[in-house]
Amino acid sequence: MGLKTRESKMQIRKLRIGGVNLSKDGITLSSAASFSTNTIAEVTAANGVTIDGSLIKDGTVPTRETVAAFATAGAITAKDGTALLTGASAITYTLANPTDVTDDGKTLRIVSNTAQAHKIDQSAGAGFNGGGGTVDFANFGGAIGDNIQLLAYGGRWLVLATRNVTIAGS
Predict the structure, then answer these.
(1) Which residue ranges make up each domain of the chain?
(2) pLDDT tens across 79-98, in order?
(3) In what order do the strands lie in the sheet with 26-29?
C-alpha cells in the first residue's frame, strides 16, 4: 500500500517579513533594514546590478568623473577628475603637490572653459614633473578647451598631456 501525496500551490503576490519585501518584481528592503551578501548574481546577461545608483556590469563599475569649477584666483583643490577654469579674465591659480602615496595614481585634468590666458602656479610645490623652478607654471594659450592632464605620483604632478599649454619657469 503506497502513500499518496498531495501537491498544493499557493500564489503570493507580496510578502513582508520585517523590513524585507518580497514580490513578483523582486526583493526590496526598507530604509531600516540591512542586507549583506558575498555574491550578487545577475538574472540575465543583459542587466547588471544597480547599487546606490551605480550600475555594476560584468565586474566593472562605470564612474562619473568629478568636475569642479574654479572662477576666481586661488587654489585648485581638486586632486582627481576635472578642474574647469571659468574665470572671465586671465587668472593665476595655484596647485599644491599631491600627497605622496595617498594620491598616487589619481589623474587631474585642468581645462579652460573661457578664452583666457590662465596660469597654473606650482611654485609652492615641486614644480611640474618634479622639475623645480624651471617648470613651475602652466601657461594656457587663451582658447576654450586648452588643457593639461596630470598624474599624481610620488608627491608631485607628472604631465601626461597638454593642449595649447606651455610649461615654463615663470
Answers:
(1) 14-56, 67-168
(2) 999 999 999 999 999 999 99
(3) 14-17, 20-23, 26-29
